[in-house]
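Could you help me review a protein record that somebody else here produced? What it holds is a sequence and that sequence's fold in token form. I need someone to confirm that the token line plausibly describes how this chain folds. Take the sequence as given and treat only the tokens as open to question. This is what I was given:
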Amino acid sequence: MTIAQAELRARGVRPYLQQVAEALADAGVADPAEVEVRRLGDDHLAAAVPLAADQGVPALVWDERYGWRTAISRRHPIGRNTVAAPTGEGIRYLGPGIKPTPAELLDQLADGRKGAKSPRG
């Protein structure tokens, strides 16, 4: 039952995530890519969008609990400890809420002064 519920949630969020990925590609900050939604061990969904090398951060990660954030690793952008919200050097939570518009996300990504060091609660 849990797997089926996660798949339904993933189907519901995929169009939004793909819209964001396409907006990032159109803006030249990411290469066009199909977004893969992953169900993580503590039963929440996450996805990553690798960014172009000149962006200063390797990827953006979306987590259904916290919204968008920057990643510090291209190889493992989502991270290994997914129970707690990642914080630390190089991580910024972007946009208002869980599903900001692509324009809001691009604005905050472009301006390194915007965003928060921890998820907004």
